[in-house]
Design a protein that fits this description.
13-stranded antiparallel β-sheet; single chain; Jelly Rolls; 241 residues
Length: 241
């Protein structure tokens, strides 16, 4: 694919979006990019991304496998790892999904032909960083990180609040690139108040969800009968170096 010319759609009402975020500490922005560009991003995620498997271990820590490492493991071993993750999800924090580590891959110059390295640059451009900082009123923030994610059938991310270890996350974001999603396919981003659902969003196409950190939320399990993958680019707005 040719290099992507990444830019925001020109007609966002930033003042109104900032007002909604100030009131609710969350905002969903539709038609984030021009439609043809969003189509191109979706194609890269669906067809041209070397996905890495990730899941939590018995201490809730990140276990990460390159495509080569994961595919080299016997099927029975892979299935056991995923079954163990499902078992831990019954009573505690657990997750499993596919990802592409955009920041580390960019810094380490991996996969030099991958078109969305341009997105990694765009996340920290004056255009995008200024857009997010203005809406969230996080004027001291200095960077946006990111990873591409692909939730296939059975994948999930259960209850957490995105606090992180360095306490420098000010807002979280989810760029949605899921096409033709049916509500009963699951994969919903749900915000919780104790055990009740306070608010939620189904996977969508060409959208940006911003929310203040910390905030308790989950990504519900994608149904075994889902007809497509849940594709997104996610990360945090930081105020640290």
């Amino acid at each position: 694919m040719t290099e992507l010319n990444i830019r925001l759609s020109p007609d966002h009402d930033i003042k109104q979006l900032a007002s909604i975020y100030a009131r609710d500490n969350i905002v969903r922005i539709e038609n984030l990019f021009p439609h043809d560009l969003a189509d191109q991003i979706h194609s890269v995620l669906e067809q041209f991304t070397p996905w890495h498997m990730v899941h939590s271990d018995d201490k809730g820590m990140h276990q990460y496998y390159s495509p080569e490492d994961w595919n080299a493991r016997p099927h029975q071993e892979r299935q056991q790892l995923l079954n163990d993750t499902l078992r831990r999800a019954k009573d505690g924090f657990a997750y499993t999904y596919l990802c592409y580590p955009m920041i580390s891959a960019y810094l380490e110059q991996k996969d030099p032909g991958w078109p969305l390295h341009r997105m990694t640059e765009f996340l920290n451009s004056e255009e995008m960083l200024g857009f997010v900082k203005t809406i969230t009123n996080e004027t001291g923030a200095c960077k946006i990180d990111g990873q591409a994610t692909f939730y296939a059938r059975g994948h999930f991310l259960n209850t957490h609040d995105d606090t992180g270890h360095d306490a420098k996350r000010r807002a979280a974001y989810v760029m949605g690139f899921s096409k033709g999603w049916r509500t009963d396919w699951g994969g919903h981003l749900l915000f919780l108040d104790d055990q009740d659902i306070k608010r939620g969003f189904a996977p969508s196409f060409n959208s940006l969800t911003l929310f203040k950190v910390p905030r308790t939320h989950i990504v519900t399990q994608v149904a075994n009968f889902a007809g497509a993958g849940r594709y997104s680019i996610t990360g945090w707005l930081h105020d640290g170096p």
